[in-house]
Amino acid sequence: MDPFLTLLHSFSSSLSDAELSSLKFLCREKIGKRKLESVRSGGELFSILLEQQLIASHEVSFLEGLLGSIKREDLVSQLKQFVEEGEVNAPDDQPDVHEKPFEVICENVGRDWKILMRKLGFSEVKMDRVVAANPFNLREQLAQSLREWQKWKGRDAKVTDLIKALRGCNMNLVADRVEQ
Questions:
Q1: Which candidate, 105, 114, 112, places its Cα nearest to that of 176?
Q2: How far apart are CA 174 and CA 180, in angstroms?
Q3: Using one digit for the tens of pLDDT, what is the confidence trace for 35-71?
Q4: How far apart are CA 103 and CA 92, in angstroms?
Q5: How many CB atoms are located within 10 Å of the residue 126 CB?
Q6: Residue 59 φ/ψ, nearest 5 degrees
């Protein structure tokens, strides 16, 4: 999967309705009014910007300006990190979203996922955003939180940290399965 599209999807899910409206307003000169009226999500807006080649994985200045204008410095810093790393480079011990650690955790943690995320140092605000983006899907809430944690930690996101946090929450069975 394209890391840039993954990043845009992450941005999209963290945007509030007011922020999306602001982004649409800021894009009025670049995108026709009729097209903008039909936009209902950040993903749709980003798709249009990609189609019109206003943003690309190697050309993020327009996107950076938009995010800065709506005071989402957290997203601007994620974007800068993406550019600096030339993509999301995963070292050997970093958990891959599509590999066993995340899969095992998502299958086995359930309703106590917030306890785990707090142990990992994940903020309440970010958890609330994830819940708002996936209100009725517990598994997806955990999966998105783990992805966000991995992006937040970057190169410091280690499988050993996940195992330590699981054990700290008395989720030893899940920790054992992750170790296997």
A1: 105
A2: 10
A3: 999 999 999 999 999 998 899 888 899 999 999 999 9
A4: 17
A5: 17
A6: -135, 95
Q: Which long-range contacts (CB under 8 A, 24 or more apart) does 54-58 make?
A: 54/30, 56/4, 57/2, 57/3, 57/4, 57/87
Q: Tokens standing for 113?
A: 């996922």
Residue 95: name the closest of 87, 86, 103 by CA.
Answer: 103
Token readout for 26 is 């800021």
| Whole-angstrom distance, CA of residue 109 vs CA of residue 91 | 25
**Half-sphere CA count of 179, side-chain side, radius 13 A:** 12
Q: What is the residue-averaged pLDDT of the chain?
A: 85
Q: 99-141, pLDDT tens digit by residue? A: 568 888 888 888 889 999 999 998 888 888 888 888 888 888 8
